[in-house]
Amino acid sequence: MDLPDYEDQPDSRPIPPEFESFAEDGPFRQCQVCGCPIYTTEQPYLIERAFKKDEVIFEYAICLDCRTKMQKQISQESQTRVDHYFHEHVDLIQRREHLMKQSDRRLVDWIDHCIITGKSREEAGEYQIMSICSADHMLYDYLPMMISAEAMEEITKLLSPKTKDHLDGFVDEFLGLPPEIHNLDLVIL
Ligand SMILES: [Zn+2]
User: What are the start-end ranges of the E strands in 1-80?
Assistant: First the structure.
């Protein structure tokens, strides 16, 4: 999504337990796609974790190079529809401004409610959280955020069949998930 960069640097804080890997029992250390080290280098990476209540459904970290390559596989019309959907439901710029004004960075302020539906994690039941990290720090900028499975399903419906195939291919190849979990969102930001 096309969002303006800010002149002020994003705030960075140590990665909270919410964005550590369940499988690794600690921080994510490698890009799930290319295997490059992420925890010991400065190259930023995206973490996405999906939960059903307290249970982790899937999780991965991906370096921004790989993410950019994946984003290029998203068709223009899919991207336009997704951008439009976000525009209609949330003002990400205002959200960022509002949250950055707060003097402390309480993770709960950023990820406790779905940015689309406004439902809390508890109400949503099933949801994904995502953040951008660099080495052992998490950046507060447009992310971190939470999106409920309900909203994610709507977003997935906006994707063209071809784009959906690409994302499903990613899931099959790199995440090793059961086929019913295909509502991955790798489109945002
Ligand atoms: Zn990578």
Answer: 11-14, 45-52, 55-63
Tokens encoding 28: 């994510």
Over residues 135-155, mean pLDDT: 93
Question: Residue 32 C-alpha to ligand 1 middle, in angstroms?
Answer: 7
SS (H, E, C) 72-103: CCCCHHHHHHHHHHHHHHCCHHHHHHHHHHCC
Q: Quick one: tokens of 127?
A: 């949801």
**How many whole angstroms from 80 Cα to the centroid of ligand 1?**
25
> Torsion angle of alpha carbons 19, 22, 25, 26, nearest 10°?
-10
Contact status, residue 45 vs residue 30, Cβ threshold 8 Å: no
* Ligand 1 geometric centre to CA of 126 (Å): 27
Give the residue-averaged pLDDT of 66-73.
86
Please determine, for residue 181, whether its predicted confidence score (pLDDT) is greater than 70. Answer: no
**If you compute the radius of gyration of the chain from its CA atoms, what whole number of angstroms results?**
16
pLDDT reported for residue 184: 55
Residues flanking ion ligand 1, Cβ below 5 Å: 31, 33-34, 63, 66
Task: Tell me the whole-structure pTM to 2 decimals.
Answer: 0.90
Distance 36 CA to ligand 1 centre (A): 6
Q: Dihedral, CA atoms, 79, 81, 85, 88, nearest 10 degrees?
A: 110
Rounded distance from Cα 63 to ligand 1 centre (Å): 4
